[in-house]
Amino acid sequence: MNATTDICLFLEGTYPYVAGGVSSWVHQLVTSLNEFTYSLVVILPNRQTSRERRYEVPDNVKEIRHVYLHEHDLPNTHRSKLPDEAWEEMSALHECPFGRGKTRAFEKVYRYFFNSETRGFSPEALPNTKQAWDLLSKLYEERASDESFIDYFWTFRFMHYPIFKILVADPPPARLYHTVSTGYAGFLAAVAKMKYGRPLLLTEHGIYTRERRIEISRADWIYEKDTRQIRVRRSQSRFKELWNTMFTTLSRVCYEYSDRIITLYQGNQKYQLQDGADPEKMMIIPNGVDVRSLQALEKEPKADPEEFVLGFMGRVVSIKDVKTFIRACKAVADRVPKLKVYIMGPTDEEPAYYDECLKLTEFLGLKKIITFTGKINIKEYYPKLDLLVLTSISEAQPLVILEAHCLGIPAVATDVGACRELLYGSSPEDQALGRSGLIAGVTNSEEIARHIVNIWRSPELRRKMAETAKERVARFYNKTDLDNQYRALYTHYVNWQPGRAPKPSVGAEAAPAEVGTVSTVAVNAE
What angle do CA 484, 486, 488 make, to 5 degrees? Predict the structure, then answer.
């Protein structure tokens, strides 16, 4: 294998085309560790998806490839003869429980049907063969015979075509593969490792399968029987469970092939273990921020010392539950006479949701209090804030809290992801510092408002929380220290040679946990 870059990153619908969250983390990583060269594989729904870059991609990113999940143009060629056992392995892959047998079947199915260098059958023809029909019919009889066969057939096909696009994609050769989620990106990363025999790192911010389960439970595009039918409770979940099983399987494949399974905080590890991650591979590397740069900023003096300024930093999308924040602001405005609110973040990802937020703001009489800023420079707006509020339904380890803490800004956050650890401390040493904010229940606008008002009423509480916030982030979330952990991992695995056990030492956090159509563009050509 002639590697084109040191590291190939696999990204699903994020960097460099979506701002914030994981994308910001990726940008910081490739920018900070600029002694390495990178290629990016970005998975997108189709070619119509916006590819407007939200970041200035650094020069050490040498290539970007795109894989389009929902363009069903599969290759129609093969290079060898299909062996007799091929269809047996395809059946085994679908029927055997997850374990080494399933992994072996996956490797053989990839070689026989999808690898461009070894496949003995055209991927385009595969879904339309008699063998595929017989396998699907058998699975239907065994698992869903009380459902409509037509509905099962189209659900099965719709699930499998994106997987086929992943399997036929050609990831670039690299010395190390690094995926920033499981799901489709992690599945393609596992394919890359299998094809080229190079190590694979997985970093999970949020737990992919858990987030998909939340989305699937709310989905109205997945077929369900009429709720008036007697067998409603069982039949309603059948097709949603198929999707859940599929995403869990993709994650387990990624866990199986990863040499290291990294997450941001300990709470995530229980979900990884539930989905089959090997505890011997698991480690924690939390988010970090540029403490020195942010702490150098000074809070702005107010024209009116009595004004109290709230900030919400994040994309205006449903998973951030901005509506709950707006409702909480209404309750706060009834008790805080001079309230100013900034909702800071991109508004174009879910235009319909943004429009609903605008209408809710107007309906509650908050237009003079709340300002939607769109995307901003955090260094311009953080110095204005007295308190940061985060109302997300799902989070990993939000950078916005760490960034605000650098300036001594306390936070009120919902009890999701690592928010409790960030505000109350993650270890006895950290907890001894005290609280740097307050935790509220998800969607509980009344509790959020009550916490905001209590912090507003007590300047002394705000002062103590501010001191704790600055101390906590400086001691436990300094980006320089955390970058060095990835630097050690990268250095080890980039230089790994077959026959050497890929087990680097990167400090205490390395200990086991307790508990496609592909388009290639030159980066500078667009």
Answer: 70
Co-location of 314 and 443 in the same domain? yes
- For residue 313, pLDDT over 90 is answered with yes
Q: For residue 90, is it within any domain?
A: yes
CA distance 393 to 404: 20
- The answer to whether 251 touches 208, Cβ cutoff 8 Å, is yes
Same domain, 420 and 327: yes
**Does 15 have pLDDT greater than 50?**
yes
Q: Are residues 303 and 272 in the same domain?
A: no
Under DSSP, the state recorded for 97 is P
Considering the domain architecture, whether residues 493 and 455 belong to the same structural domain is answered as: no
Q: Given this model, what pLDDT does residue 222 score?
A: 56
Distances from the Cα of 165 to the Cα of 81, 200, 498, angstroms: 22, 20, 29
Residue 306 gets which letter from DSSP?
T
Q: Which residue has the tokens 């690898």?
A: 115
Query: Does the pTM exceed 0.90?
Result: no
Which pLDDT score, from 0 to 100, does residue 502 have?
55
**Both tokens of residue 206?**
């949020």
Q: 348: how many CB neighbours lie within 10 A of its CB?
A: 13
Q: Tell me, what's the pLDDT at 206?
A: 85
Q: Is residue 96 part of a domain?
A: yes
What gap in Å lies between CA 177 and CA 39, rounded to an integer?
Answer: 10
pLDDT at 106: 92
- Evaluated on CA atoms 312, 316, 322, 326, the torsion sign reads positive
CA dist 447 and 429 (Å) reads 28
CA pseudo-torsion sign 158, 159, 160, 162: positive
308 & 279 share domain? no
Burial class from Cβ neighbours inside 10 Å (0-12, 13-18, 19+) for residue 122 reads middle
Res 524 pLDDT > 70: no
Range of 501's domain? 5-74+169-287+485-525
Question: What does the pLDDT read at residue 111?
Answer: 95
Domain of residue 327, CATH code: 3.40.50.2000
Task: Give residue 84's pLDDT.
Answer: 85
Q: What amino acid is encoded at 7 in this protein?
A: I
Structural domain count of the chain: 3
> Is-contact 310 335, C-beta < 8 A?
no
Q: Is residue 469, in this structure, part of any structural domain at all?
A: yes
Tokens describing residue 472: 């906590």
Q: Are residues 348 and 496 in the same domain?
A: no
Q: Looking at the structure, tell me whether residues 175 and 199 fall in a common domain.
A: yes
